[in-house]
Amino acid sequence: MIELLLYAKAFIGVPYVWGGDNPFTGFDCSGYIQYVLQSVGEDPKGDQTAQSLYYHFKEEGKEALVSPGALVFYGKSENHITHIAMAIDTFRVIEAGGGGRNNKSIEDCKKNGACVRIRPYNHRKDVVAVIMPSYSLL
Known about the structure:
Helix content: 25-40%
Mean pLDDT: 92
Largest sheet: 6 strands, antiparallel
CATH topology: endopeptidase fold (from Nostoc punctiforme)
Shape: globular
CATH class: Alpha Beta
Strand order of the largest sheet: 3-8-4-5-6-7
Number of domains: 1
CATH superfamily: endopeptidase domain like (from Nostoc punctiforme)
Radius of gyration: 14 Å
């Protein structure tokens, strides 16, 4: 688990770009989580949204407390997930955030301070679920 979290932290500062899925052009929240999960064989096939990642891990993982490696899902309800992050400890998550649909360029990211960053897990008040993936390769 330590290696996974160190890998996730290696991308701190990479710009948040809507639809982004790699460290060279930027990440959005789901693209970032998929990129990190790919390193341990836990990335579902295809380009996933935060909502589809929730459905996948709801079936594959188990509900958990905020703990290292757990996925934290945010939104209005289980059927309206809008954001995903990964817990790095019991208090904080790492996420690609600070943007939204309007962050489509590096200039937008700089203006909005949107990037991969560490935040308190409850920096948003709309936590819907916390799920621990199986992490079969760890």
